[in-house]
Specification:
- By secondary structure, the protein is an all-alpha fold.
- The protein has two domains: about 70 residues, no CATH class; about 60 residues.
- Helices cover about 80% and strands about 0% of the residues.
- The chain has five helices and no strands.
- The chain is extended.
Length: about 130
C-alpha cells in the first residue's frame, strides 16, 4: 500500500522520501527478526521442558543415576557466600552500586512474586487429585 500511495504524491522519488521508506523497511525487518527470535526461544524452552521427563527416565533406568537433593544448610551457605560476593562487587563504585541496588530491589520483588506465582502454581500442581 505504501508503494501505491507514494506514486500518487508529487516528488515521490526525492531522496528524503526514499530514505524514510528505507528506514521504515529496516524497522519492519528488525521487528520481524526480533519476533522470530522470541518465538524460537519460547519453542526451544518448551521443547527442553517437554523432553526432560524422557531424559530423566533414561538416566534413572538405563544408567542407574540416583537423584539426591543438596542439604538445606549447604544451599543456605552457598546463597550467603554468593550474597557476600555480589555485595562486594556491587559496592565497588558508583555505577556498580546503582546496578547492585537495582538488582536487590528486583530480587526482593521477584522472590515475593515467585512465592505467589511460580511456587503457588507448583504447589497446586503437586496436589494429589484424580486426573484421568
Amino acid at each position: 500500500m505504501f508503494g501505491q500511495i507514494d506514486r500518487l504524491l508529487p516528488g515521490h522519488d526525492e531522496p528524503r522520501f526514499d530514505q524514510q521508506r528505507k528506514a521504515l523497511q529496516r524497522q519492519n525487518e528488525q521487528l520481524l527478526v526480533s519476533t522470530v527470535i522470541d518465538a524460537e526461544a519460547h519453542n526451544q524452552f518448551a521443547e527442553f521442558n517437554a523432553r526432560n521427563l524422557g531424559s530423566l527416565n533414561v538416566l534413572l533406568t538405563k544408567h542407574g543415576v540416583q537423584l539426591h537433593q543438596y542439604p538445606k544448610d549447604m544451599l543456605i551457605k552457598i546463597g550467603e557466600v554468593a550474597g557476600e560476593v555480589v555485595n562486594d562487587v556491587g559496592n565497588t563504585n558508583a555505577f556498580t552500586k546503582r546496578v547492585y541496588d537495582s538488582f536487590i530491589t528486583y530480587r526482593k520483588q521477584a522472590i515475593t512474586w515467585a512465592k505467589i506465582g511460580e511456587q503457588g502454581f507448583m504447589n497446586a500442581r503437586a496436589l494429589p487429585f484424580k486426573y484421568s
